[in-house]
Amino acid sequence: MAGPAVVTASRKPRSELPASIRLWPYALAMRVAFVGKGGAGKSSLAGTFARVLADTGERVLALDSDPMPGLAFALGVDRSDEGLPDEAVQGYDDNGRRRYRLRDGLTGTAAVEQYAVVGTNGVRFLQLGKARGQRWNNAPQHFGFQHVLDDLPGDGWSIVGDLPGGTRQPFMTWGRYAQTFLVVVEPTPASMLTGRRLARLATMPQAPRVVAVANKIRERGDIDRVREGTGLSVIGAVPFDRELVVADRLAVAVLDHDPEGLTVTAVRSLVDVLRTGMEPS
Fold first, then answer.
1. In degrees rounded to 5, what are phi and psi of residue 153?
2. Cα–Cα–Cα angle for 78, 83, 89, nearest 5°?
3. How would you classify residue 28: left for phi > 0, otherwise alpha for psi between -120 and 50, otherwise beta?
4. Superfamily designation of domain 9-280
5. What is the biggest distance separating any 2 CA atoms in the chain, rounded to whole angstroms?
6. Quick check: 201 and 210 in contact, CB under 8 A?
7. Model confidence, pTM
8. Per residue in 150-186, pLDDT tens?
9. Strand order in the sheet with 117-118
10. Is the Cα dihedral 182, 187, 193, 196 positive or negative?
11. Which segments of 153-200 does DSSP mark as H helices, in order?
């Protein structure tokens, strides 16, 4: 069996790049959201991506709208299921319906400054938090987090989001802050089907850029399978990495466990692709 492929990148003239990329100076902030089938590896890649991006000198906010744990482990921050505290949110009556919003005077930027966890590499981390009890029992945190998404920090902040597995949240605008959706796809039928469905995000009004990252590849043909199975451009490829499995078992970030290994090296290349406008060749 052939070894895992290594995808290199070559710079294209900026006039030939998508508008969403042409507008970025080389060191300007970016806004990306990782999506894909559950178990495809998006949380591990998103957390590693956020930390690698922070290493370039960018101010990075990592957003986790998945009530299941994942991104916190990849970031190497203390694991907590808590979202915004109750004090950050207030209720109000909307024609007889109970609604919630950030408390008076609290902007999304201020909420990030006050409540986001500062992790390794200086990455700020803010999460939706787990559901408590029956459905909507976390309604205050749910709506407060939504309002943060509508008022995220500007002024050079890069945003890296991790959305839950599947297609529901992306199409419900939870990733509305993103300029680019990175669809993490394994070379399996179920994962590629999810990727094909997520490709429809590119047809929405004011559509962001939607591209694929082929994950857990074992041979060069896997990249072609992901490209053909999703109809998406593949801008990054991550080999199957046994050390990532070990890191998950140890509950440590792969960037801390194996900083020069297959996964981290591939993510560094992906960060370079998005920061410089290079595309794989």
1. -60, 140
2. 145
3. beta
4. P-loop containing nucleotide triphosphate hydrolases (3.40.50.300)
5. 64
6. yes
7. 0.87
8. 998 877 899 999 999 999 989 998 999 999 999 999 9
9. 117-118, 124-127, 59-64, 157-162, 31-36, 180-185, 209-217, 234-239
10. positive
11. 168-171, 189-198
